[in-house]
Amino acid sequence: MTGGAAGKRGRLVFPALVAAFLGALALSAATGPVAIPFRKMADALLHGGDDTPARVLLSLRLPRALLGALVGGALASSGVAFQALLRNPLADPYILGVSGGAAVGALTVALFLSADASSGLPFFAFVGAALSALAVFLLARRKSGVSPERLILMGVVVGAFLNAVIMLMVTLSPPGKIPGALYWLMGDLGLGTPRRVAALFPYVALGVAVLLLLSRGLDLLLLGDQAAFQTGLSVERVKTATYLTASLLAGSVVAVSGLIGFVGLIVPHGARVMVGSGHRRLLPAAFLLGGAFLVLSDTVARAASPAGELPVGAVTALAGAPFFLYLLRRNGGRS
Amino acid sequence: MTAPLVSARRLSFRYGERDVLREVDLDLQSGRVTILLGPNGSGKSTLIRVLSGVLPSGGGEVLLAGRPPGAYGRREMARLLSVVGQDPPVDFPMTVAAYVGLGRFPHQGLFGGTSAADREEVERALAMTGLDPLRDRALSAISAGERQRATVARAVAQDARVMLLDEPTAFLDIRHRVAFYEIVTRLAGTRGVAALVASHDLTLCAEYGERIVLLSAGAVASQGRPEEVLTPENVRAAYGVAVACDRNPATGAVRVTPLRGAPSG
What we know:
The complex is a heterodimer of chains A (335) and B (265).
Chain A: H1 7-30, H2 38-47, H3 52-85, H4 98-112, H5 121-140, H6 148-172, H7 181-186, H8 194-213, H9 215-221, H10 225-230, H11 235-257, H12 263-275, H13 279-304, H14 312-334
Helix pairs in contact in A: 1-3, 1-13, 2-3, 3-8, 3-11, 3-12, 3-13, 4-5, 4-6, 4-11, 5-6, 5-11, 8-11, 12-13, 13-14
Chain B: E1 6-15, E2 18-28, E3 33-37, H1 44-51, E4 61-64, H2 74-80, E5 81-84, H3 96-101, H4 116-128, H5 144-158, E6 162-166, H6 174-191, E7 194-198, H7 202-208, E8 211-216, E9 219-224, H8 226-229, H9 232-239, E10 243-247, E11 254-258
Parallel strand pairs in B: 3-7, 3-8, 5-6, 6-7
Antiparallel strand pairs in B: 1-2, 1-4, 8-9, 10-11
């Protein structure tokens, strides 16, 4: 889709991304208080094992790394979808307040229904995400349309409000019933258990598959509604499907990892530089890059604070917030 | 004469309290270039939007190849009718070739795979519009005129039987204007395309239009062959400008020349 310019370099991008993705997983699994050499890792993966390194690897490190890969990939894919849907390069589930809505949805279930409804959490987080995305869009809409700046502004307002709701729910909940406020507001992969990874996987797989099916439609949305319609796109149907799928991806990962910001913002831009804006290449590239980025961020966070006080969301925000400012300036200068 | 590909009868559209289109009758025949003239605000763009289904008609009837627009699925409709809008996207984040390739969407399946026929049509459209040398350039890195040609190329790649073109020559220099009308005339001649071109260029219209529809305040003021429509009386009534209409000695087509300093209105 990107034309001949990709050429030789274009063919190498995907193998490089896959290598980066797998490399990040391996590095993450090797890093920690108990050092696990790569040869030991291969041995444990192939034959299992009952010694301490094998158990650390299989029940702690690997699930955590896989959770990071799924969450990072899903957030980046969701970011790509929201950016195409809103034709706004600054869109991202975190900035739009969608992740906040997801957290409130998940908390509501955890507090009022069953604390251990972990398989149902992603679904209710999805409902919360979809509702907050709709609220932000309706608040930002004017008769003349939706301006990018207004959309971001409303996202920030709704996001701040939802963060307050999260604080309130966490503070007033009975102790021990749900993870603490830091987990929800800055994100954490510490809950990565094999069971949680397995619970999240179908949501992410479904969401990514649907977005891939929509990829030509997402390309056409870039033309604007009218031209997309005249080129044969069922604009409203594709937009609704994209909005629901992007909310599903963002919501389901928030339920298992809290609010991790900026992955959905910076990763799509990085992926665009590598493979162009055609969504059939952009979506898989963003998934791989997002997974690698979040797994590495988590490895950095764990290395910097071995006791685990540094949430991964702090690392992604450290990298992401300056990048957001850069995009904002560049975008503002152009319009 | 064969049945028209597009047939509008008593087509109306209201925007709030304002009548934008009043009982417009229009036929577009296969293989014929029809020019849509009229001053700013006379309803040309609205007519194109209503014909393409972007705006619902506010009365009257449209038939596309004998059926109402509602009888077609979106892709089916886009294979029948393509539109070139006024504003080419400035910041579109793709190459010229990828942008033109989007025109193939209605011919592609659910998975959007690009077939050999798709690639062939894109090549043809690029060659026809002279964009081949720019194929790998970003759409944001070419001139406004080149972007406008890319928009036309996308519609050519769409390969529809009807083309509605809304002032597609506004940013083009004289060479590319002529080239544009040559392209449309060729598509009409070789593929039997029924083309409707909204324009402000009275002289080139008379050269290339087989039929002219003159809109004024949302109603058809006159329609017919160029020499029937382009008369000093019609032009003065629609545009409020005094003109002289004679024949171009080189081509025999009607030539419209504004009269300097003549009283208008």
